[in-house]
Specification:
The structure is a homodimer of 120-residue chains.
Chain A: H1 11-14, H2 28-40, H3 44-54, E1 60-62, H4 73-85, E2 89-94, E3 97-102, H5 104-119
Antiparallel strand pairs in A: 1-3, 2-3
Helix pairs in contact in A: 3-4
Domain HTH arsR-type (chains A, B): 26-120
Organism (chains A, B): Streptomyces omiyaensis
InterPro entries (chains A, B): ArsR-like_HTH (IPR011991), HTH_ArsR_DNA-bd_dom (IPR001845), HTH_MetalResp_TranReg (IPR051081), WH-like_DNA-bd_sf (IPR036388), WH_DNA-bd_sf (IPR036390)
Chain lengths: 120, 120
């Protein structure tokens, strides 16, 4: 977390979205950013896909590894795209396959918004 | 929080929804429950209202305290109802006003799902 340059493609999403929810009412802009991340996890199929990537070896998975959630391949691709747009996953093509990775810094930010709220 | 009987209406929502997201892929049922909570925070207006309650004195606020987010009173009521349905707020009528409270146990559960994922 000390070297932001290590995640050049994700800097906008990795910046803290907002203070802990108990600190003060969020501004409109803070709420827009934070809500977009929560919304990305607010769909059951998307959340299953996300946990499939997150729990895969090294927090990284190929589409071929995570398509057993009972929806079509285009639907899987759609949800993975949404997770990328929200900054929760990054992707990289390697030969035939696209690999997806969980972004721990973003998750930590989201978790802190909630758990600092819960602890105070 | 040591006396569960103080929150009789919220016990189902306070049960852990699921393991940390990195532990294993969520089942369909776990994903349904967890996604419903994330979805409740996935709207900017709802998130602003939620943070307004969470940051108010004692984590509790009257509707009269938190209506300055630029939407109509019926819209405020609609969003507060959604937050209640998701188990994130409880409410209590006191005379003329309904007071809303944040449920710290639910927030802690949601936070742990994310931050344990991030830490591993």
């Amino acid at each position: 977390m000390s070297n932001a340059k290590a995640l050049p493609l994700l800097q906008p999403a990795v910046e803290p979205c907002c203070p802990p929810l108990t600190e003060r009412p969020l501004t409109g802009e803070e709420a827009e950013r934070a809500a977009a991340m929560f919304k990305a996890l607010g769909d059951p199929v998307r959340l299953r896909l996300f946990s499939a990537v997150a729990s895969h070896e090294n927090g990284e998975a190929c589409v071929c590894d995570i398509s057993d959630v009972g929806v079509s391949q285009p639907t899987v691709s759609h949800h993975l795209k949404k997770l990328k747009e929200a900054g929760l996953l990054s992707s990289e093509r390697r030969g035939t396959w696209v690999f997806y990775r969980v972004e721990p810094a973003v998750l930590a930010t989201m978790g802190a918004v909630l758990t600092k709220a819960a602890a105070s």
